[in-house]
Sequence to fold (1277 residues):
Amino acid sequence: MSATDWAWLVLAFPLAGSLVIALGFRVLSPKAAGWIGTGAIALAFVSSIGALLMLLDEPTDARQLTDSLYQYASAAGLEIDLGILVDPLSVFMCLVVTGVSTLIHLYSVAYMDSDAGYRRFFSYLNFFVFSMLLLVLAGNFVILIVGWAFVGFASYALISYWYRRHTATTAGMKAFVINVVGDIGLVFAAFFVFRELGTFDFLDSFDAARETFTTNEGVVVAICCLMLVGAFAKSAQVPLHTWLPDAMEGPTPVSALIHAATMVTAGVYLIARMFPFFELAPTAADIAAFIGLATLLIASTIALAVTDLKRIIAYSTMSQIGYMVVGVSIGAYVGGLFHLMTHAFFKALLFMAAGSVIAAMANVQNIDRMSGFRRAMPLTSGLLVIGCLALAAFPGTSGFFSKDEILAFASDRGGMYLIFTIGGYIGAFMTAIYAFRIGFRVTTGEPCEEARELERGHLHHAEPRNPATGEGEDTDVGFPGPEHQIAERRRPMAIAMSVLAAGALFGGLIQIPGVDAVLEHFLEGTFESSPLFHIVPSTAASWFGLLIGGVISIAGIGVAYYCYVANPGVTARLIARVPRVHRFLLNKWYFDELQDALVYRPAIAIGRFANSVFERVVVDGIVNAATGVVRGAGSVVRGAQSGFVRAYALLLIGGFAALGVYFLVVSS
Amino acid sequence: MDIAWYLVLSALLFAVGAGGVLIRRSPLVILLCLELMLNAGNLALVAFARSAGNEEGQVFALVVMVVAACEVVIGLGLIVAMFRRRLALDVDAMRELKG
Amino acid sequence: MLNVILWAPLAAGVLLLIAPRPAARWIGAAGALVTLGFAIALVLDFDSAAPGLQHVVDESWIPDLGVRYELGVDGISVFLVLLTAVLWTAGTLFSALRSYPEDGRTRFYYFLLALGETAALGAFLAQDLLLFVLFFDLMLVPFFFLIGAFGSGERIAATTKMIVYTLVGSLLMLVGAIATAILVAQDTGELSFSIADLRANLLSAGSQEWIFCFFAAAFLVKMPAFPIHGWMPDAYRAAPLPVVLLLSGVLSKVGAYGFLRIVLPVYPEATVTFQEVVMVIAVASILYGSVMAFTQTNVRLVAGYSSVAQLGFITLGVFSLRDDGADGAVLQMVNHGLVVAAIFVVIGILYARTRTEDLTEMGGQAMRAPVLAALFLVVTLATLAMPGSANFIGEFYILNGAFQSKIALAFVAAIGVALAAFYALRLYQRTMHNRLPEGVDSREISLRDSVVLAPLVACIVALALWPGVILDRGEASVDQNVGAVAALGTDCSTQANTTVEPANTAVLCE
Fold:
């Protein structure tokens, strides 16, 4: 079996799992569906390893393999194959996606227990994994767009999974429409590529691009900017990020998988995959990096203020992806992708732990109401703290090595790129603070009522309500199920979280500067031709950066300790001192309102105008005017038919007289 | 005799009849004037027949008289129907064919 | 073969007029199924490499006027014929299984349906201009009765409006057709309405222009395109559901097909002159239709305005005057027909449960109806041209064609894609998701409804996997029809080419 054969299997297993569960939903028991789903992804992970091993058999410079299933649409000059590209980058992504997905499926088997739509959940989840794998394995622009859109659809389906909740369906719609905007950007980028280079295939277009385009030529900058539209819509970078916090309406495993570990990283993958184009258009790459930086900082500030636990983690995701975007845009491909991997580990872990905590709180998500779970839920608390440590880039954790690698690369490139280093460190400081805002709030302090109840052995129950609006609900299909599952009581959840915790703690060991560079060597197969890839900061510079990063991380944790453990009233006093700033952050920098005013409201207004005024006045008006004219002419002519016999007689006689006179005159 | 005299008389009679049709409101009188117009035509026909020397005009005058008789029958029938239904014998009041 | 396909429905229609009343609907359905069988056979028998007409039937009909009874099928029309057969089968079966019409004039109703099918098939098969005009106008007759006699609400007013709108266009088209034949006869000495003859002897640019406008009027009204769509809301509201299905699924395509079959080859200079105007009208239709679709509360009108937008895309593809744009338009015609028919079937199913067609009174239907929800979801995704569906490939080809010829319009048209996502998903969510209204139940799809809906969805899915099926067969014929005009678009000599270089190489003449 060659690497491409394994790659087809990687795609086939999740798709088969999704279809089997969907078509057999009447015959399969929920448990069976859960295990089929998990098993399918596990098999995909095994196949990814198979692809990896086969790929490693090839020499380093021949590790980009393509294969095509059939000609999808080839007519009128456009050649579109159902083709895949198997190379180190795509195999890396496959491993991360399938690995983390398997663990999240395992977690969900227990977590989603008692939900009435259990089978639908696993079918959609498997379909999502299939879509994500299609995206990363795509070998040409059209299949990339297909995978891109499938992922967007899966995200919509899973965000609005509890579809009787109005907040969930609205959030799903928002995510989907923004995703479509991104799709359009990608489609136009593909059109440009086809027009200039004559092909949709990745490898062919990369080669052609190097020959055809000069650096920073208008067209290639346009292509890259259009691709950035797609990337930023998917990866929730400013200004197309407003869907991500709302996406927390979905069940927690969904947030873990899609909105932390995999889907939102698709934009990062795209920029990395398209590196030949971006290196030909440094302007676009710089724009991307600056937007990444902006997102990084903005999201961190918001994460300091909002109070919904899942949303804090969501903004943290946005911020961390900002790091990744900066990384791959400035040329730190290894750093960016390494951070992608470690982030997948610790962010998924964080979400899983959050899910456990929220379950203990009976679906309350407000962090201000949580405290003191360390005795009631020791496992969850411990794993949560591990996740927070990795997020805060505490020395030794995976996040430490990955994040600082990006910043070291930026400072090594020097010049303007030092802005990214400085901004990155500022962001890292804020990250450490809010990471341990979560960590300390949930675990330390006096146990809240739910925690005390759990310490006595009783899981808190409450009337089912929408966490956002407080609306009453039931527990039938379309709403969450009646039971809540925590990690302490459900073995699958505990296993999944523990494996991820191990990854979060020790995953950084593969790229220690000066010691080993496993990822760098592996990715060389893809990025060989990139000059930026070969810029490696010296070991000393890297360790210096790591030192600064470590100090900042510990400092941030210290500040969090001060605010949330030692002096609990500090934050309240701070908020009272700068209420307007706090409100600005709490309202997420008013981006939602901005989008509402600039896009949504005008569209609705135009629609209403068209409906009430335009249709009635112009379109109907023209037709009614025409009928009016015809009617009017008719009435005028009707005047001649007066009904007076004498008038008819006059007409008769007069007419004859006139005729007679005419003939007399003519004949004379 | 100069044919012109007969023609002038015919024209005069025709004009009187036409004027009567246009001016009078009673259907009976209109019928009367119609007859006048028809007979004026007859006169002209006979005059021409005499002056041309053949009898075709006189024969045609007979045809006209037949047509006049038929039309009078129908017209009088209409007037009797109007009278029987107690409608005003006024041509201006009969306006149901208004468009 | 073509004669059989064309007249089989009408034969069934006449047969059911003399059959006993309960059997009438089944004879009608059987007639539609038989025609479908023949249409499938036609597609299987089709030679995709040959660019010209196949299965040609050519008889002399009115020799003094030069009108011939000429039928033929090529890559552009073969799938439209199949689409007509499929949708008519769906519409007839839907009516039969739901015991339409309830008032008992069944024989009349099914006869009208059968007559409509023959007329639509005739429009797609005719290769003689006057024959085409005849079938085009004949399509109106059964729909006049179907809406006027069997409709609801303001049906008389709606019918009158539709007839007047369409007839104005049709009469202008008739004038144009006669003028074309006569002017050509002045050059060649022989009066002929055959499209092949008219293509070979082109008129002067001036005459072409005004005749183009007349034909465009007729076709744009049929589709309907933006400024002259006024008949659509009333007709769609008043007509019975199977009739709307056919109006939207098949009749609208006749307009787009007419452009490809008649206007582009016979009036190429005028097409080039008016290319931008029509493209602007197309983009306006896309935007206006989409904007209207997401503010409507009547589900039928959401589907109706979305059709206006989709037909705008198809027109855009045809008038990009490129092989890829036009091939995409052909694919999209079939796609849209299938999708909109499925939507109307779903609307019918929803109406049976909620007794309303107002979105503000619906919701939550997915709760006990997972199969219905799944089928409707597939249809919704196809409507918004989700990549992975055949609609996406159609739109991709169309937008590529528009992009390569007029970039700015392509970008504006792309806004329509985003709007489509919004209105399609809104329709799905407002009917299937959110809470169930008071007193409304959610029921799974019944067997008799799935007999109609499931095959349509199966076709949509099959096309999504193999869009090449239509694209490949259409390629040669599209090339022949569009290539002649494309050559002119570069201001070269007016020798009509039958081959065109691939879309991405340079201009044709040096």
